[in-house]
Amino acid sequence: xxxxxxxxxxxxxxxxxxxxxxxxxxxxxxxxxxxxxxxxxxxxxxxxxxxxxxxxxxxxxxxxxxxxxxxxxxxxxxxxxxxxxxxxxxxxxxxxxxxxxxxxxxxxxxxxxxxxxxxxxxxxxxxxxxxxxxxxxxxxxxxxxxxxxxxxxxxxxxxxxxxxxxxxxxxxxxxxxxxxxxxxxxxxxxxxxxxxxxxxxxxxxxxxxxxxxxxxxxxxxxxxxxxxxxxxxxxxxxxxxxxxxxxxxxxxxxxxxxxxxxxxxxxxxxxxxxxxxxxxxxxxxxxxxxxxxxxxxxxxxxxxxxxxxxxxxxxxxxx
Length: 319
Prior knowledge:
Elements: E1 2-4, E2 7-10, E3 28-30, E4 33-35, H1 41-44, E5 56-57, E6 59-62, E7 68-70, E8 84-86, H2 101-105, H3 107-111, E9 117-121, H4 125-136, E10 140-145, H5 151-157, E11 162-165, H6 169-173, E12 179-184, H7 193-196, E13 199-207, H8 219-222, E14 227-230, H9 236-249, E15 255-258, H10 263-271, E16 278-281, H11 283-289, H12 297-307, H13 310-318
Helix pairs in contact: 10-13
């Protein structure tokens, strides 16, 4: 099993008697949640992550039986059929992350690609995939960053159409009311008025990260009939469509595999922004290289404590 933060890829060891669409040995994916009440209005509408009675998330949550979910670090995990996705057989689709499904949730840019434009704030793990999605939809993609060193990767590796240094007032002014959508994948606190000024009338600024606060003037969006929205995750049906789209369009994240023993080093590199664009901890092979069988429960955490600064590692895992 590979750990993908709170994303899990693995194979079913057992399936319920009424489960028809998954079988033992398949390659499947579990996203941000594993359970919900299945009775409230949000569950009925397919928005199980927003369950009125509280969704059970994949990592660090208490399930209905009182057990604590351990995400990709578990020996096994129990998941409802409705919260499981089938992985396409295309190589690399295993690592397609569903957070960028916020792009697919806006039907307009996908259905009318010739006339639509997307701005991407930040070029990290989520941001670089947002650029790939945007280009696959046929959008004109502009990347915003305060770091000019990211320009080459944005334009030549990821295929963005334009790179803008967001701290340059002249560059920002030149884009006034030119973009249909802006997606913010940066977790830092940033001023949003400059970005709203480049959104077209009736355009959208979508937030998928968690800055500590969001500040903007109401006039900056009221006068242009602009929308500010947020998203955490897509539902199961949307996520399955996204995985299939990634496979057919060959959209894969740029990743670097690391063993669990290197987690502290990976964290230090991440703090220095020395990662392009995701570290993925390979739990299974980490144990094999160490000459260990697959460990369980307390035994597994003992192994981790021997090799990883747990305070730093926990922060690394939650990114």
